[in-house]
Amino acid sequence: MSRCDFKIVLLGSEHVGKTSLVLRFVNCRFNSGTPYQNTIGAAFCAKQMQSHDREFNVGIWDTAGSERYEAMTRMYYRGAHAAIICYEPSSMPSWTRLRHWLQELRTVEEDCKVYLCGTKKDLLDSGSVQREVPEDIIATYSQGLHGHFLTSSKTGENVDELFQKIVDDCVGDLRVMKNVEEARVNLQKEDYEKNKNYCFC
Predict the structure, then answer these.
(1) Cα distances (angstroms) measured from residue 6 to each of 32, 80, 119, 161
(2) What is the rounded distance in angstroms from the CA atom of residue 93 to the CA atom of residue 100?
(3) Residues 142, 147, 151, CA angle at the centre, nearest 5°?
(4) How far is CA 38 from CA 13, 19, 42, in A?
(5) How are strands ordered across the β-sheet holding 54-63?
(6) CA angle 35-40-44, nearest 5°?
(7) What is the Cβ-side half-sphere exposure of residue 12, based on CA atoms within 13 angstroms?
(8) Facing residues of 116 across strands?
(9) What is the pTM of this model?
(10) Cα separation of 83 and 172, whole Å?
(11) Helix (H/G/I), strand (E/B), else coil: 118
(12) Residue 125 is inside which H or E element, if any?
């Protein structure tokens, strides 16, 4: 993929399921039998999406949740159009830590659109875990942000809806789209200049 129109970063503590969320969205799969592995720095993937009858390339940076990688992961925030901050509804520490991630993000990319994502909804629904983060607290905290989604990477519930909302919001933002169009024009100019230097005869 030669360019990314929109950059999305995923933030959140270890074990909240950021990587599973990305894999479900990009590859439509869930690896329940794969042993847990820490993300080091950030992992990148991309996907083509549609909004308002147009196609866009979306780049997703899955950042490390471990505190020892924090200094490294901050550099991935720069230039992000949107951020998904993940937490587990059954883990109050992951919710408390969420506020830290938001503050870190704002110091680097103040205008980034922020979405909260509660993960592992299937465990809540089945009764395997108990909710620790009250819904009224989540609703209050989400009011100043761009949205809140309760997702399941295992079943896929609300995963596509989350990413579609982000892309639709970016497309509806005139400032963001102005930058996207300028970047596309510049890329076309670069491709033209490269091809001009080759002889095809």
Answers:
(1) 29, 8, 23, 16
(2) 11
(3) 105
(4) 11, 9, 10
(5) 42-51, 54-63, 6-12, 82-87, 113-118, 148-150
(6) 95
(7) 30
(8) 85, 148
(9) 0.87
(10) 16
(11) strand
(12) helix 121-126
Q: Which residue has the tokens 């993937």?
A: 45
Task: DSSP letter for 136, please.
Answer: H
Residue the block writes with tokens 């491709």: 191
Residue 153's nearest CA partner among 34, 5, 58 is 34
| Cα 96 from chain centre | 19
Residue 164 in tokens:
């579609």
SS3 state at 53: coil
Kindly state the tokens that stand for 177: 């789209």
DSSP run (H or E) holding 116 = strand 113-118
3-state class (DSSP) for residue 14: coil
Mean pLDDT, the chain cut into blocks of 10 residues (201 residues total): 83 90 89 53 84 95 66 79 96 93 90 96 96 95 94 96 97 94 85 62 44
**Chain length of the chain:** 201
Tokens 């866009």 map to which residue?
A: 56
User: How open is the CA angle 39-82-168, to the nearest 5 degrees?
Assistant: 125
Helix H or strand E encompassing 181: helix 174-196
d(CA 57, CA 65): 25
Q: Token pair of 183, please?
A: 């970047």
Q: Encoding tokens for residue 28?
A: 């439509």
